C-alpha cells in the first residue's frame, strides 16, 4: 500500500471544489428515485419532465444534505438515441459525475488541450435565479464528467428544474439516516486499464495519485484487484480506479466489467458522522448490506489488541450491524457496503466514517474474504 505526499503542481488557473451531483441513467427514473428515498433516506428535491416542458428526458433529483443524485430516463421511444443505447448496453448505472468548479473555462480548455475528449463545450444555462456555466468531457467507458460553475446562480438546483411534482407522505415517517457528503466514487476498469486511466486524471485534470494498493495486498487465495486513488489538488474529490488481477476465480472487478459492458462506476461512498446510528436507521428502512461472519470480529479484536489504535465505538454494536473496521497506527475507518442497487451485479453503495484515517479499506478485503473462507473450512467446504 502506498500513500503519496506529492500533490503535484498547483494548477495556475481553475479549481475543483467538490462533487456537485451524480447522474444515473435508468429505465424508470421515478421508481429508482423513490427506491433511494425510501431505503437510503434521500428526499425528493427537484424535477423536470413533460409538465415542465422537457419533452424527451425526465429527471428526478433527490438530496441528502450535500449529496445530490439525479435519476434520468428517456421519455420517447428510442429518443434520445444515446440514452436508449446506454440503457440496453449498461442497464441502470452512473452516466455522469459532476464537479463544482471555479474558472470552468480554464479547466475545460486545459483538459481538451491535453487530450481529453469534449462532449459539450462550455455554455450558459439561465433562469430567473441566474446563470450556471457547464461543460462536459468524456472519462472512462461511457462515463462523463460535467464541470459546473454555480457562482452566478441562486436557484436550488439547476436552471430548467422545478419542485418535485408530489410530496411522498411516507418519507417523514421513516427514521433520519444522516448521510452528509460523497467521500469517494470508484471506477472499475478492464484488465490493464487502471494505470492509463489514473494517468488521464493526472494529465488532463491535474489530479494526483493519492493512495494505491496492488494485488499482492488485495488478494485472497481466489481473487484479486488493484486500485489507485486520484484526487484534486485540494483533496476534496477522491476517485479510486480499480482493475482486476489474475486469481483462481473471477475477480469481482471482472464480473462488473462483464455485466456493465466495460468500464463504469462501481460504488459511491457516502460519509456519516455517526455510522452506528446511520446503519441502524438504514437497516430499519430495509436496506440490505453485505454480510460478514462473526469470525471477522474475533480476528479484528485480536488485531486491534496488538495495535496502538483504540476504536471509540462499541465493538459489539459494530458486530451486530456488520460494520467493518480498517486501521493503521494513527487512526481507523468504519465502513459497510450495500448489496447491489439493481439486478445487474454492477453498482453498489458504501457508508463510511473516518477517524484520522485516509485509506479506503484495503485491510478489509482480505479479512472479509478470509473470514468467509474460515467459515467454509469450519463446515468442511473449503
Ligand atoms: Fe470505497
Automatic annotation (TrEMBL):
A Gene Ontology cellular-component term: Golgi membrane
Main location: cytoplasm
Functional pathway: Amino-acid degradation; L-phenylalanine degradation; acetoacetate and fumarate from L-phenylalanine: step 3/6
Pfam families: Glyoxalase (PF00903), Glyoxalase_5 (PF14696)
Organism superkingdom: Eukaryota
GO MF term (any one): metal ion binding
Database matches in PROSITE patterns: VOC
Amino-acid biosynthesis listed as a keyword: no
Keyword presence, Cytoplasm: yes
GO BP annotations listed: L-phenylalanine catabolic process; L-tyrosine catabolic process
Enzymatic reactions: 3-(4-hydroxyphenyl)pyruvate + O2 = homogentisate + CO2
Cofactor list: Fe cation
Subcellular location: Cytoplasm; Endoplasmic reticulum membrane; Golgi apparatus membrane
Entry keywords, A to Z: Cytoplasm, Dioxygenase, Endoplasmic reticulum, Golgi apparatus, Iron, Membrane, Metal-binding, Oxidoreductase, Phenylalanine catabolism, Repeat, Tyrosine catabolism
Cofactor notes: Binds 1 Fe cation per subunit.
Annotated residues for binding of Fe cation: 184, 267, 350
PANTHER family: 4-HYDROXYPHENYLPYRUVATE DIOXYGENASE
Assembly and binders: Homodimer.
Membership in a protein family: Belongs to the 4HPPD family.
Protein name according to UniProt: 4-hydroxyphenylpyruvate dioxygenase
Native organism: Paralvinella palmiformis
Amino acid at each position: 500500500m502506498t500513500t503519496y505526499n506529492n500533490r503535484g503542481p498547483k494548477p495556475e488557473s481553475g479549481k475543483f471544489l467538490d462533487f456537485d451531483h451524480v447522474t444515473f441513467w435508468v429505465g424508470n427514473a421515478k421508481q429508482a428515485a423513490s427506491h433511494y428515498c425510501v431505503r437510503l433516506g434521500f428526499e425528493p428535491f427537484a424535477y423536470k419532465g413533460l409538465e415542465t416542458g422537457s419533452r424527451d428526458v425526465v429527471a428526478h433529483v433527490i438530496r441528502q444534505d450535500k449529496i445530490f443524485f439525479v435519476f434520468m430516463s428517456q421519455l420517447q421511444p428510442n429518443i434520445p438515441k444515446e440514452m436508449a443505447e446506454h440503457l440496453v448496453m449498461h442497464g441502470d448505472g452512473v452516466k455522469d459525475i459532476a464537479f463544482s468548479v471555479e474558472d470552468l473555462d480554464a479547466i475545460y480548455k486545459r483538459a481538451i488541450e491535453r487530450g481529453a475528449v469534449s462532449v459539450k463545450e462550455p455554455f450558459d444555462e439561465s433562469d430567473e435565479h441566474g446563470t450556471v456555466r457547464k461543460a462536459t468531457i468524456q472519462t472512462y467507458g461511457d462515463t462523463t464528467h460535467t464541470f459546473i460553475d454555480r457562482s452566478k446562480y441562486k436557484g436550488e438546483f439547476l436552471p430548467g428544474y422545478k419542485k418535485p411534482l408530489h410530496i411522498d407522505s411516507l418519507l417523514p415517517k421513516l427514521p433520519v439516516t444522516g448521510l452528509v457528503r460523497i467521500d469517494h466514487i470508484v471506477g472499475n476498469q478492464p484488465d490493464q486499464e487502471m494505470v492509463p486511466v489514473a494517468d488521464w486524471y493526472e494529465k488532463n485534470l491535474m489530479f494526483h495519485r493519492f493512495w494505491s494498493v496492488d494485488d499482492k495486498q488485495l488478494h485472497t487465495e481466489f481473487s484479486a484487484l488493484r486500485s489507485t486513488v486520484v484526487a484534486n489538488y485540494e483533496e476534496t474529490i477522491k476517485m479510486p480506479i480499480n482493475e482486476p488481477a489474475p486469481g483462481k476465480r473471477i475477480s469481482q472487478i471482472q464480473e462488473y466489467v462483464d455485466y456493465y459492458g466495460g468500464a463504469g462506476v462501481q460504488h459511491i461512498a457516502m460519509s456519516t458522522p455517526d455510522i452506528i446510528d446511520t446503519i441502524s436507521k438504514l437497516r430499519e428502512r430495509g436496506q440490505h448490506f453485505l454480510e460478514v461472519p462473526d469470525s471477522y470480529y474475533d480476528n479484528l479484536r485480536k488485531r486491534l489488541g496488538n495495535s496502538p489504535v483504540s476504536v471509540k465505538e462499541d465493538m459489539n454494536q459494530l458486530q451486530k450491524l456488520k460494520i467493518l473496521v480498517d486501521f493503521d497506527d494513527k487512526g481507523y475507518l468504519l465502513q459497510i457496503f450495500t448489496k447491489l442497487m439493481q439486478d445487474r451485479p454492477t453498482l453498489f453503495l458504501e457508508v463510511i466514517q473516518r477517524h484520522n484515517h485516509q485509506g479506503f479499506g484495503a485491510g478489509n478485503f482480505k479479512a472479509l474474504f478470509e473470514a468467509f473462507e474460515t467459515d467454509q473450512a469450519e463446515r468442511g467446504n473449503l
